[in-house]
Structure formats: structure tokens, C-alpha cells
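Hello, quick one for you while I still have it in my head. A protein chain has come my way and I'm curious about its shape. Can you walk me through what the C-alpha cells say about the fold? No rush at all, and the record is pasted right below.
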Amino acid sequence: MRSLAGLKVLDFAWVMAGPLVGRALADFGATVVRVESAKRPDVFARHLGPFPNGKFSAQQSGLFENCNVGKFGLALDLSREEGRIIARELAIWADVVIESFAPGQMSRFGLDYESLRALNPRIIMLSTSLMGQSGPYGKMVGFGSAGAALAGFLLLTGNPGEFPIGTFGAYTDFVAPRFSLFMLLAALEHRERTGEGTLIDVAQTEASLQFLAPQIAHYCESGQVAQALGNRDPAFAPHGVFPALGECRWVAIVARNDAEWIRLAEHIDQPQLGQDSRFATLAARKANEDALESIIADWTRHRQAEDIERDLQTQGVPAHVVASSPDLLVDPQLQKRGHFVRLPHSLGETVVESARYQLSETPARYDRSAPPPGRDNDYVLRELLGYSRHRVAALKESGALT
């Protein structure tokens, strides 16, 4: 039996931060109903891609598939009262409601926590937004790229004194769901003990601040503001990414202590550098870091990244190829763990990532590709809610199921 079998989830979330939570629940057996209107589809996730063969298809976005595999798709027009009635009945059916609309939107639909709790006192609602549901910035809307800027990540990414490069993608959309998921599981355990439902208000930017705890603590202690360091690290030298043989091939190398630096110097056939006064200690290496990196780069640029990784790791020096997408597909560790999963799709096949956790007795399973709007209308309404065929037909005629 799957670990979350029997858990019923109503998923109003869109883009990434909310859908990734529902996806994790579906992986382990929860019945997740994703509400999406064909009139207002999840344009961001469906349009971002990547797409098979590089050809745009709103029904084959890799991002949307990865966030919504395993869910049932229900098309509802929440601007219509008929659609909102169905949503309320699903909230009575559900154990959990997930939403990631702009703060206040669920209240305008009459689907806020207090309204749903009046119908289902055991309901657990997870609301995830950029800055949370309250406070002076509570009404702020935006994507995780803005969240990364608000949290302070952008000033720490890039080279010293240069324009901030920024973290990859909508960064807080990928970080916050990890916090949301475990808070949601804790709320379920709390309900098992007490019978009480819960409102969980996740501010994606605030949750992501946990990844900057060392920099924040350092400022509180010393008053020093963390700055961008490129690929360098205050505690290690060398610590960087170096060019390898071939087009756009790179390798990351770090010496964590003097002993590893001596082994690295020996491996690049310059053992004398281990005793060179410019590099003999961490303080010296940090003071002469430009020269140090230039020496290493002159050695790496004439060698294959894979050879550098293998040989340095054999010597006990941390090193790894800077992996491209093709590298990841043939990575033996990811292959061993079954990281990439192929599933049948109405338009052919889709490829998604597997669950981030492997449970020995109740492993994840991937039952269906992500739904286009309304794919499972009949199943949700007739099987889960018990509607008659005539009622479903009338709802289709009314336009509520769009």
C-alpha cells in the first residue's frame, strides 16, 4: 500500500510553488484533483517548456508535466457560481486544499479557509504566495525571480563588483515547496491526534531565507554585509569552476585544506606549489587567488572534464564535471535511481523527474501524465462526487466545466 493512499487533495495551485506540493503527494498515492480552467489556463507553466523537439505545445510543456504528473484534471470556471458550488463540494470531499493564487483571490471566490472550514472543520489549507497572506507586502504578487531578489540572493550571485547574475529561474518556487510539504505532513499528523484542521500560510520569500542563514547570522554578529564572490568561497581555495577541453566544458574543483591542495599541486605536475609561500596556507592562497586560479585553469583547459573529475577524485580532491542536460541523462547515479521517468501521453510520451525520496516499503509510483484542463471531469464528478450523468451534462451545457 502506498504511504499516502486515501489522502484526498484539492489542488488550485499554478506555476511551480504550489503544484510541486500536490505532485509529491500524488507520487505516494494521494488522490489529487487539479482545478484549471481552459479559459484561464496555467499559461506560465504551460508556455515555459521545454517542449518535445523544441516545438511549442501548451499540452506538452516539460515544466507543467513535471509539476503535475499523477493528478486528475478538472476544468472549472470559478467566475461562475456553478463552478464555485462544485469547488465547495470538492472541499467537503477533500482532506487538503492547496492554492497559490494572489492573496485575497480565494476570498473573492468564497473559497477562503474560514469559508471552507465552515463546510469541513477538518480541512487543511495550504496557501503559498510570494510574501504571505498578511503584512505590508501581503498583497504583493510575483514569481520566484522577484522572490529571489527580495530575499537577497541576487546580490550574492555573480562576480564581485559586477552586475548581479541572479539565481537560476524562479528560485523561491523551487525552494519553498520543500518547506510546504513537510509543514503539510505535520498538519496531517496534528489532525490525526486532535481532529483539528489547519491553515498554513507559506511566504515563499521568507521560507527561502533559511538558505541564507549563515549570511544573515554573520551580519547580525559582525555588521558585515555578504557580497557576491563568483565561484569562490571564504573558507576554501582553490574553489572554482575551470575551463576544460571542448566547447562549453567546465569542471568544478575545490581544495578544502592544505593537504588537499598539496595533492592537487602534485597531480598537476607542480608539486613545488604546495610549498610556495604564495599558496602554502589558506590565507596565502586567498591573497593570491587570481594567480592560483590561473595556474589551475592553464592545466584544466587541455584535458577532458571527465578525466579531471575521475583522476582528482581518485586522489581525494573534490572535483566534478559541470553537467549539461545531456550529461544528466547519462549520469550513472541518476540512472541507477531511475530519476527520469517516461510516461505515455495523449500526444505521445512525456519525460518527468522521479520523486525526490525513495521509500523502501512504499515507493513512489507515477500513474498518469499531467492533465490538460478537464481531462478527468467525468471521473471526478461522477466517481468522486457521485454526480449523475444528467447533472454532469447540465454543467457542461452551462459552461461551468470550462
Remarks:
- The domain at 8-210+334-398 is CATH 3.40.50.10540 (Rossmann fold).
